[in-house]
Design a protein that fits this description.
Layout: H1 7-18, H2 39-49, E1 55-58, H3 65-72, E2 76-81, H4 84-94, H5 99-115, H6 126-130, H7 143-156, H8 162-180, H9 189-220, E3 229-233, H10 243-247, E4 253-256, E5 263-264, E6 270-272, E7 276-278, H11 280-285, H12 293-296, H13 306-323, E8 329-335, H14 339-352, E9 355-358, E10 371-382, E11 387-400
Parallel strand pairs: 1-2, 1-4, 2-3, 4-8
Antiparallel strand pairs: 5-10, 6-7, 8-11, 9-11, 10-11
Helix pairs in contact: 1-2, 2-3, 5-9, 7-8, 8-9, 13-14
């Protein structure tokens, strides 16, 4: 494993960690997944610590940023997540598609915008309504969005190909997030249709750019046909038992961002008109959700549940220690609601399962020898129930002891 960094690599990694640039090219802007990290950070870490043909693993893949970066750089990628929304999104972002197929989706969305009429009789999603997936989106100001969603979801089935339907659902979910999630002024049905078509066009162009870039990368590295990226809807706990990890070599890099202790992040809900929550994104994605916040966050944000957080963390990284080998580097971006009390416990938990911390003194910006970064304009709700508008994250490097 390469642990020494050149002066140029130090510079590139430091710039990537602290970069506040918004990256929207390729498929990175398909959806605003909560607490995602920078594509530039993922690309730089992968480029420095792996070679083309290596395996990169993200056991908490979230919005799939690591997998997109790995695919573009000629690496194999495996991502897992317990959230079906994550798996849905990662598959949409990493699929290689053809230009003519994306043009068909654009034509479909253009015709749909011109012909969709909210005065037509409703097409109610009875199954999803009965399961509660339209909760809090039936008010006087949200019903036009809800009805538009029902019309479009029915029409999506007219698309010929599986990926076209997956892509269209993703574009619809992105548009509905813009319209409903933490929104003060709910748009009209007409504004929603305009935005949906705009998103389809922008995302289709991104998907085509991504596909062309991947084809160029595969040709450069002389890759033949075969699997390149796999997205699993599965917990990291027990992952070492999956057939994939019994037949594949150990990953050279595990690059991830796990749930943060004491930090409330809604991975599975949108907030409507204040703090009312809706599971509507699962309905749009044709996915199922039957879990509360603690399922996705290792136990929730409250102090009395922290013991569950570290127990779950230990079980998860025990599995990762069985997948890794002596040449595997584990890189994590982690945030804390109270770093002084939580970071040491986090490091001790990693040590308990066999991961030893490695520091790069040349990169450190704090006296503890680690790399810390500020995250502006990210609103979290910590254990004190106060809004945390600017939170700190730390980059942690580990290898097997």
């Amino acid at each position: 494993m390469k642990f020494e960094l050149s002066d140029n690599e130090n510079k590139l990694l430091s710039e990537a960690v602290h970069s506040k640039a918004t990256v929207t090219d390729f498929t990175h802007n398909f959806y605003n997944y909560p607490a995602r990290f920078s594509p530039l950070f993922a690309e730089t870490v992968i480029d420095i610590f792996t070679e083309p043909g290596d395996l990169v693993l993200d056991p908490f893949m979230g919005g799939g940023t690591t997998l997109v970066a790995a695919r573009l750089s000629g690496r194999y990628g495996i991502g897992t997540d317990i959230n079906e929304l994550s798996t849905f999104l990662a598959k949409a972002k990493t699929k290689i598609t053809l230009k003519k197929h994306m043009r068909e989706v654009i034509c479909w969305a253009t015709d749909l915008k011109d012909n969709l009429n909210l005065h037509n009789p409703p097409i109610r999603a009875k199954k999803w309504i009965d399961l509660g997936y339209q909760r809090n989106i039936n008010s006087r100001n949200t019903w036009p969005i809800r009805k538009t969603l029902e019309f479009i979801l029915v029409d999506i089935e007219n698309l010929k190909r599986d990926y076209q339907r997956l892509f269209a659902r993703c574009a619809l979910m992105k548009t509905a997030q813009w319209a409903l999630d933490c929104t003060t002024n709910i748009p009209t049905g007409s504004e929603f249709r305009d935005r949906f078509l705009q998103n389809v066009i922008e995302m289709a162009n991104g998907a085509m750019d991504f596909s062309n870039a991947v084809r160029g990368s595969d040709q450069k590295h002389n890759y033949r046909k075969g699997w390149r990226t796999i997205c699993l809807n599965k917990s990291v706990i027990g992952l070492e038992q999956h057939p994939l990890f019994k037949s594949k070599p150990a990953p050279r890099l595990i690059l991830t961002s796990p749930p943060y202790p004491g930090v409330h992040v809604l991975y599975h809900r949108w907030q409507i008109s204040g703090r009312r929550e809706t599971p509507a994104p699962y309905w749009i994605a044709n996915a199922r959700d039957s879990h509360g916040e603690s399922y996705y966050t290792f136990g929730g944000r409250h102090l009395d549940k922290h013991f569950k957080y570290y127990d779950t963390l230990k079980a998860a990284y025990t599995s990762l220690s069985k997948i890794a080998d002596q040449d595997t580097l584990l890189v994590q971006l982690v945030g804390f609601s109270d770093p002084e009390s939580q970071l040491q416990k986090y490091i001790e938990t990693m040590e308990d399962v066999g991961f030893k911390e490695y520091t790069f003194p040349s990169l450190a910006n704090k006296s503890d020898g680690r790399i810390w970064r500020n995250v502006p304009n990210r609103k979290w709700y910590a254990q004190t129930k106060r809004s945390v508008s600017s939170s700190k994250e730390v980059v942690l490097f580990h290898s097997l002891a």
